Amino acid sequence: MSDLRELYQEMILEHARRPRNLHAQDAPGGLKAAGFNALCGDRIDVYVKLAGDVVEEVSFEGSGCAISTASASMMTQALCGKTVAEAEALFRRFHRLVTGESQNDSGTVDLGKLAVFAGVCEFPARVKCASLAWHTLVAALHAQDGIVSTEEGNET
Ligand code: ZN
To answer: How far does the centroid of ligand 1 lie from the alpha carbon of residue 63, in Å?
Structure first.
């Protein structure tokens, strides 16, 4: 198990060092939201381009700790080609994973590489870091153009 954990940490550090899809988007009709995690100081802007109901492109800008950056980077890769409903289902699944509530999940949603964040549930202070990009994504999908703070709102 410790080998697996090391592998996971390596993947997170690799994404933190070389984040994917780290750029703004200014396409007409694009969606955007900003997120802020006061607990750690992570800031992120998430940009979403939809083609009908399908996520065509997700990108982000921001500055934050390794966990928040890696989570955002891997999120942008995971969402490409998903429908909005699938993206939201993935967010709920991911959120249960990092909060440690997914022990009994039957696994209807495949997290793929996002499963590397399973270890985060052992570090409650890091849960907000890992989920910030996702909360911001959902805000963007709902076109709530404003600041999302993980310090407020419902953490369900
Ligand atoms: Zn952080």
So the answer is: 9
Strand order in the sheet with 54-63: 54-63, 42-51, 31-37, 147-149
- Type of residue at 99: T
3-state DSSP assignment of residue 156: coil
24 Cα: distance to centroid of ligand 1 (angstroms): 21
pLDDT tens track for 130-139: 999 999 999 9
Any idea how long the chain is?
Answer: 156
- Kindly report the pTM of this predicted structure: 0.88
- Domains with residue ranges and CATH for the chain: 2-146 (3.90.1010.10)
Structure tokens at 149: 């703070």
Using the mean position of ligand 1's atoms as its centre, give its distance from the Cα of residue 64 in Å: 6
Question: Quick count: other Cβ atoms within 10 Å of Cβ 19?
Answer: 19
Q: pLDDT under 50 in the chain at which residues?
A: 1, 152-156
Interval between CA 145 and ligand 1 midpoint (Å): 22
Determine the straight-line distance between the first and last CA of the chain, rounded to whole angstroms.
Answer: 29
Burial annotation 109-124 (CB, 10 A radius, 16+ → b, else e): bebeebebbbbbbeee
The Å distance, Cα 17 to ligand 1 centre, comes to: 14
